[in-house]
Amino acid sequence: MAREFRFREEAGWSHADEVLLCLDTGSWRIERPVVDEDRCTYCGLCALYCPVQCMVNKENHFEPNLAFCKGCGICAYECPRKAITMQTQEDS
Ligand code: SF4
Ligand code: SF4
């Protein structure tokens, strides 16, 4: 069954029709989330919890938009399948 996710990859802190504020939050990152597609069940919780709404819907899993991902690790913490691991920038 096809799923419809309404999360929009847009920018920091806005779910309005117009982007209110766009910050280069990706430059804050010292770690990045890496998604294991084989473990991902496409539940969408990582996209729901991501504070900057930068998880991009790839139709069968989600991937972070690294231009905005600030490396907070909330997606990895909330993922019920432990499909996301945080890796240092040097390792990724
Ligand atoms: S929370 Fe985990 S299992 Fe759910 S879509 Fe995100 S990566 Fe996949
Ligand atoms: S680490 Fe995860 S929750 Fe945090 S900004 Fe990046 S994608 Fe969003």
Task: Give your account of this protein's structure.
The chain has helices at residues 45-49, 74-78, and strands at residues 31-35, 55-57, 62-64, 84-88. With 92 residues, the chain is of the alpha+beta class. It has a single domain, classed as Alpha-Beta Plaits, CATH 3.30.70. Strands 1-4 form a two-stranded antiparallel sheet. A two-stranded antiparallel ribbon has the order 2-3. The longest helix has 5 residues, at 45-49. It starts with 30 loop residues before the first strand and ends with a strand. Bound molecules: iron/sulfur cluster (2 copies).
What's this model, at a glance?
With 92 residues, the protein is an alpha+beta fold. It has two helices and four strands; from the N terminus they run E-H-E-E-H-E.
- Kindly give the count of domains: 1
Main beta-sheet strand count, sense and barrel state: 2 strands, antiparallel
**CATH architecture verdict:** 2-Layer Sandwich
**Helical fraction:** 10-25%
Q: Kindly state the mean pLDDT as a whole number?
A: 84
**Ions and ligands:** iron/sulfur cluster
User: What overall geometry do the principal axes of the alpha carbons give?
Assistant: globular
Using the coordinates shown, work out and report the CATH topology.
Alpha-Beta Plaits
CATH class category label: Alpha Beta
Q: Whole-Å distance between the termini?
A: 33 Å
Order of strands across the widest beta sheet? 1-4
Q: Can you count the helices?
A: 2
Radius of gyration: 13 Å
Strand-pairing-aware structural class: alpha+beta
- The ordered H/E elements are EHEEHE
List the uncertain runs: none
Number of strands: 4
Strand content: 15-25%
